Amino acid sequence: YICRNHHDAFIPVNSDVHFKLGIYVNTHEAMAQEKTYASVKQCIYCGSKSYAEGSPRKLGDEHIIPEALGGRLILKEASCNACETITSRTELEWLRSSYYAARVQKGLGKRKKRVPATLPLKVTINGTVVTKAVPLKEYPAMVVTLLFDTPEILLGLDPVDKVLSGGVAAGILPTFGELMKEHLAQGTVTFEPPRKSASSTQLGRMLAKIAHAYAVAELGINGFNAVLQPIILGADTRHLAYYIGGSREIPPPIPCHYSLSLSISPSATGQEFYEVAIRLLPDIQGMPMYRVVVGTPCNTQ
Question: What pTM did the predictor assign?
Fold first, then answer.
């Protein structure tokens, strides 16, 4: 994404645009930023009771929100090795791309992991591209992410095979404008994250994983009729927009690393669904809210 002056929009490559807005009822807020839930003792994604075939190791503990985004909600013994590998790879696509600079600058992630001293910033000066190694504290960090439509299942629509599409949201840290002045005075600034392969599908799958894990933590593994496992594991991603969406309105920032809420939401046809609202890095101005339908109450189909 490129910035030529303070009024430019920040547009990630290959982004799509569309929107609708929904509502929430019966909200159950997860205000605690740290909590360890009871052991599930089976993989919440595939149902396996062992970490790996023939392995005596316990199932892995699942961070509901990625640890790299400050996640401290832990679901004990909840993931096998195979599913752990899949969900980790999906999350890394966005954690090492759009979210990278902001989360590193904020000091989020594994405490033992080495933090880079500088981050690269490209400035085009009189037609020549110069790559600067900017000290971490002086880097003008931002997060460019996507906005999605209301989950189509809540609109009473039928599932349609299509790419999960959305508009663009730019999360700007308070120091962004001041730190950009020096570089903009020299030319056009280009931000290039370490990984450029992140897609709307991978963001949708990461949100599905967060929502499903949180619903299991709050309701229990058998507490609802779950629907997201094929999406999370990548077995079937044709209908992401049917279950995964968001709001066009950007809510005000709140002083925490993440926000989750579980609610029962009625669809346009009157059927009730469990829905999880997700905000990642909501302390940054401009970060959106996502909505993910995780399934139905056990007394419905």
Answer: 0.87
Mean pLDDT of the chain: 87
> For 171-219, what is each residue's pLDDT tens digit?
999 999 999 999 999 999 988 777 778 899 999 999 999 999 999 999 9
Q: What Cα–Cα distance (Å) separates residue 69 from each residue in 76, 118, 146, 157, 256?
A: 19, 19, 17, 33, 11
Query: Taking CA 261 as the corner, what is the angle to CA 225 and CA 271, rounded to the nearest 5 degrees?
Result: 40
Phi, psi of 19 (to 5 degrees): -155, 155
Which pair of structure tokens corresponds to residue 229? 């496992």
Are 92 and 195 in contact by the 8 Å Cβ rule? The answer is yes
Parts of the chain with a pLDDT under 50: 1-31
pLDDT digits (tens, 9 = 90+) for 17-50: 222 222 222 333 444 578 999 999 999 999 999 9
Q: Which helix (DSSP H) or strand (DSSP E) does residue 231 occupy?
A: helix 229-232
Tokens of 23: 């509502």
**Beta-bridge partners for 102:** none
The 188-190 sheet, strands edge to edge: 2-3, 188-190, 118-125, 128-135
114: CB partners within 8 A, 6+ apart: none
Angle ∠(163,17,67) on CA atoms, nearest 5: 70
Sort 19 into a burial class: Cβ within 10 Å, 0-12 / 13-18 / 19+.
middle
pLDDT value of position 23: 27
Place of tokens 């046809």: 269
How does DSSP classify residue 207? H
Query: 208's torsion region: left (phi>0), alpha (psi -120 to 50) or beta?
Result: alpha
Bridge partners (DSSP) listed for residue 128: 125
